[in-house]
């Protein structure tokens, strides 16, 4: 395990700027901190190391999620959080790779066993137009299961439901000092609405770009944020004429564009997630190529996100807990 941790730390050092390594700023975490765990850093591609896009934010005594891609329930459990203990899930948009983990979070979360379930009221899901219909579909999918468990185990109907909230841009959630603000992003003309989210707590902030092309609204919302978690897609040169690749690249941010966003936002730490490395005839683009393109305009700290990597932001500075490094490579 120590070897794996060493490898991952080297990765971060490689992409960090000069000066003290980030983890040297670590201080003991406190309950006043804002904690972020990357549950899934992948895309629709099946990848055992990178589950579907999903994130856990812990603050104000609550667990909230941004998106719930493939395997989110498993990663939550690995992070020590029961699917039944999620206060709310905020969806950036309704593409499948951001929601395929939802059924598991819903149905495992309402089981009576508190270790993995124990939810007493419906699952709160916030998202764009279409979220209510999707949520009705989720409930229908589990209609037989909830009827059986109601009759057999005495589970309450209200615990097994979904409370869907279709949002507009602006402040969408505020509780225990935690504020969630949605902002529109440009994921393509036909994908409306698509949101990014800014989360503020106790003077600290984390921003999720959502799926988006280069967008000044991400820059504006991430101004001075403690943490910016941003997507990207990168194609090898030999595939740029491929119409499928062109379509993908037309909906996402290139590493070069991401570098611009990072530089313009002046976020204190940026993290790549939703990692869209597209294969070419000679394999995937290398991280060296991707980082070099970012470095054309951005010289600050950059972390290549890994599943289960955790960030803790508090008065004492920033801590990065490299739990992702423990995952087999
Ligand atoms: Zn998408
Ligand atoms: Zn996506």
Automatic annotation (TrEMBL):
Signal sequence coordinates: 1-24
Keyword Hydrolase among record annotations: yes
Domain Metallo-beta-lactamase intervals: 51-252
Listed SUPFAM superfamilies: Metallo-hydrolase/oxidoreductase
Domain of life: Bacteria
One protein family per Pfam: Lactamase_B_2
Gene Ontology MF term list: 3'-tRNA processing endoribonuclease activity
CDD domains: arylsulfatase_AtsA-like_MBL-fold
Keyword Cell wall biogenesis/degradation tagged: no
Keywords: Hydrolase, Plasmid, Signal
Cross-referenced PANTHER family: ZINC PHOSPHODIESTERASE ELAC PROTEIN 1
Annotated protein name in UniProt: Metallo-beta-lactamase family hydrolase protein
Lineage of source species: Bacteria, Pseudomonadati, Pseudomonadota, Alphaproteobacteria, Hyphomicrobiales
